[in-house]
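Repro:
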Amino acid sequence: MKYRMFPSLKMSFLLGFVFLMLSCAQSGQRVEQSEQTDQNKAEQEKMRRSMLFGLIADSRIETLSAFAVANDYSDLFGKDSGPLLLFAPTNEAFEKVDSVTLRSWRDQKNGMMKRLIGNHIVKVDQLSDDLSIYLDQNLTALNGSTLKIIQEQQAYYLEDVKGNRALIGPNPLRMDNGDIYYLDEVLY
């Protein structure tokens, strides 16, 4: 009988050891999963405060949002630390553009929409709650074109090198990596 207990004791010890090791491994996995979950939560929170989230969530600029995502601007608005100024033509601004022009912009092969969106994005040194900080400066858009912010009475306008102007609406959307200002016209 002693010989039978000894193997049982040995087997119990071995099974206990295996159980203990599995428990430690699972605990380690839980800690690793918890760390990944915390990291995922931090990334998700950062994304919610990014311009990409603002661009996608704002119904006033759905047209621009669709064009921006289709033309590979998601990383810029979602991951670039900025600071960026996006002068976003509203849905109504796109409705003013004739259908032939819009059709040609939708053709991704010609790259027109990518250039057009790049004409409405400026990387700046700092963000400001007041557009007057940018008055009469030559702002260089991502596509290389020059833009100016001008003020007439109490209104601010974005002007391109051709003299085309768009009214900049009040109450920009302020995100961690930049500000989204609303335009009443598409500058092209």
